[in-house]
Amino acid sequence: MTQGAGPSASRESGVESPTTLRRLRSFAAFRRALRVAESAEDVANVTIAFASSELGGTQMSIYCGEDYAADFDLLATSAASRDALSQRIEREGSLAQRLLTEAVVRDPEIVGSHSVAVALRDTSERLVGIAFLADDLDPAILDELVFDTETALAARVMNRVRAEELAVLEVQERELVSLLREVQERDAIIQKDLEEAREFQRRTLGDPPRVEGASIEVVYRPLGQVGGDLYAVSLNGNRLRLFIADATGHGVSASLTTMFIKSVYDTVNVSANAPGLLLEAVNEGIARNYKGAQMVFTASCVDLDVATGELAFSSAAHPPLCLVRGGKATYVEGGGALLGVRLKMRFETQHLRVAKGDGIYLFTDGFTETPGPGGEQFGEERLLSIVEDAHARKILAGKALDEAALAFAGRSELSDDATFVGVHYGG
Amino acid sequence: MMQAASDVQESIEIRITLEGDVVRARGAGRDMCRALGMSEINQVKVATAISELARNIFHYAKTGSVVVRKLTTPKAGIEIVASDSGPGIPDIKLVLSGTYKSKTGMGKGLLGARRLMDHFEIESAPGRTVVVLRKYAK
Fold it and tell me: A5 to chain B nearest CA, in Å?
């Protein structure tokens, strides 16, 4: 459609006829009314009012889509009965498709007295609406009317689509804020639970006893709030027993395993009078009662007679025992199989002797398998050297090891649970 | 495994009286979408639209209900009916035309909810507002 086709002939002569002037004024008023129309429905009403009053009472109906994909709904009509008209025209229907190419279709199949259908477009390929008229209008006037109406309708449809898109963004933002708040609330609950579990685990493991003739050091560093490592230190007469275990995995599930192990350990601790027997009894308790629960773990046990220095040691696939004797640190390999896998496992007890001033140190692989920035592991040799040095300097070997491992890792935490239990024999 | 639509619960009504009910309504809608085998993106759209309606009820009407219903006609999908007896949304036509600048934001989210869904109906008057949304499975 071309804008302003109507008055052009008169302008050439330089004299506007009264009819032309009246039409120019009425179109100007029409455009002002369109400018302030808020919705597509208002635009349709303004157009129909204009057609009724200024274009000889032409009967007119206007349909418009809610967006660029929706069918066209009847927005306004000057027909006597709105119900006699089609309420909706399909965008993919034959009439709409014809209008895309032909712009004007005569005798459209629509209930009512309309004889002409005119495309209202925002681009040459897209309809925003359809106008129906009962009578043919002067083509120049029709062109102008259609141009003004489709421009106004296209702007309202675009506004509506943009408003919807903005509203979707707002709704999604509110949803995100709400979801984030839920996650934070759940996180706070989980965090609180974990802190309580950590405290529970700490109390369950307990502090080592004070033993005359031996100073005991424990370092317990779970990876998260709770860990899969376990230690126990108990004194029964002259027998000082050290027990250390490492459940597979870490976190909550591994920490639960440690609680089961501790429970079984407490049950059999007194009656098992040698480290190998203790490991066998713990294995029976776990493998029999929690079969299928995947409670697999390594462990070591040391019995030290604090009166004589006699030492008994047994291991179940756990890292070696570190002994510092005469100032020299060495490992005692224990071997053994994993615990919790099957019943009736047997574990050897090795018998050794330490003298006053010697050290007995148990640890889990969280220290030795700590990776450095280059991927190299902290390793058993490094641990041996640090413990020997600390022992010689009479400083806490576990603390020195912990600091060295963290420095080696270059981070504020290790990559696994790590536990150290040491005894400086002779105090 | 995808659950057959016939096994899906027919409908569930959630009373909206507390802020936590918004979460329950959203969860119920999402669960039903999942059970109906709807795509994850459509599950999120439905859940987001339900949240908006339920939040509107909680903030403006204080109490109301959200019914989440399995839909078989005219197409398979999910229907959400949110109703309340609050003050209603003034100038609902203008709000939905996208031209209304509401001071309170009341009803503004409806535009977004409508955009997220395939079908939208609303009746609103003081004392009774009913919004019907549908999302079709395919």
Answer: 32
